[in-house]
Design brief:
3 helices; about 0% strand; elongated; about 120 residues; mainly alpha
Length: about 120
């Protein structure tokens, strides 16, 4: 049984480059598509975080004193989420500019594949 496992691992390890090189033509398109999806999702997440903050604000204003702590917590979480998302976004752009990486939706480095 150990011999079969070793044989399967060896054949799999030797066949992996063939399988991966066969699919590398689509990797560039896949990375570009994922980047485009992420670029479309980020503004939606910012809007949701802002909506959470304003929902907490509305609940704080229009509810009684027993619900104010819950509404305050909702507002704080909305601000924290906005701060974290904006900080990560700013850090990514700052590091990209510092390292000289071009800020585009396409990947900056494309794999070179001999044909």
């Amino acid at each position: 049984m150990k011999i079969m496992k070793k044989l399967a691992l060896t054949v799999g390890a030797l066949a992996l480059p063939l399988v991966s090189f066969a699919a590398l033509g689509n990797v560039d398109q896949l990375v570009t598509d994922i980047g485009n999806i992420v670029n479309k999702i980020i503004p939606i997440l910012f809007a949701l975080a802002l909506l959470v903050f304003f929902w907490g604000l509305v609940r704080y204003i229009f509810t009684g004193p027993e619900k104010k702590a819950e509404a305050r917590s909702l507002m704080i979480w909305g601000v924290v989420i906005l701060f974290v998302m904006a900080s990560v976004w700013g850090l990514v752009h700052f590091l990209g500019a510092a390292l000289g990486v071009e800020q585009t939706s396409a990947p900056a480095v494309k794999p070179l594949i001999p044909r």
